[in-house]
UniProtKB/TrEMBL annotation:
Gene3D superfamilies in alphabetical order: Nucleic acid-binding proteins
Source organism of this protein record: Escallonia rubra
Lineage: Eukaryota, Viridiplantae, Streptophyta, Embryophyta, Tracheophyta
Protein's name according to its UniProt entry: Replication factor A C-terminal domain-containing protein
InterPro entries per record: NA-bd_OB-fold (IPR012340), Rep_factor-A_C (IPR013955)
Domain Replication factor A C-terminal residue range list: 8-100
Record Pfam families: Rep_fac-A_C
Length: 161
């Protein structure tokens, strides 16, 4: 993909990096938070002088994956909106399941390996990202089930109410 115009293609999932599938952001302004356990957002705290601890965090998906087209294998990055299509849940919900079942991320990657997809890829807006971004994804298998459904069934976990 040499130009800035999005490209849509058919591909197969080869592998997913399960070691770092999400990141934390401020639930108010969605600025990235540090990995330490603080829920404090410097930006919101700076702008909210009356209640500096009003900020909380949430997780968003950031999935690094290898996909194969008919001509090559490439590494792409899939952020929250696209990842929710494949996972069928929020990153927080998946993280909570993975806390209870430590191999859930590995198993999720295996469930997605070989999945046929139609993806739209684009370059990052600032142009300095290492990988193209998946801006939309459509599973092509007619019986596709989101990862969270398959994991719940495998682990005998009921859906959140």
């Amino acid at each position: 993909m040499e130009d800035k115009k999005p490209t849509t293609l058919m591909c197969t999932v080869v592998a997913i990096d399960h070691t770092n599938f999400c990141y934390r952001v401020c639930s108010v302004c969605e600025k990235t938070l540090p990995d330490n356990n603080t829920n404090s957002c410097k930006y919101c705290n700076f702008n909210n002088k009356f209640n500096p601890n009003s900020c909380s965090s949430k997780r968003l998906f950031r999935i690094l994956m290898s996909i194969a087209t008919d001509t090559k294998v490439v590494v792409v990055i899939m952020f929250d909106r696209a990842a929710r299509v494949l996972f069928g849940c929020s990153a927080d919900e998946f993280f909570d399941l993975a806390k209870l079942h430590p191999f859930a991320a590995v198993v999720a990657g295996r469930f997605l390996e070989g999945e046929m997809l139609r993806v739209t890829l684009s370059k990052s807006k600032n142009g300095n990202a290492q990988h193209d971004r998946v801006v939309s994804v459509v599973p092509l298998m007619s019986g596709f089930r989101p990862v969270i459904e398959t994991l719940r069934e495998s682990y005998g976990v009921r859906a959140r109410s």
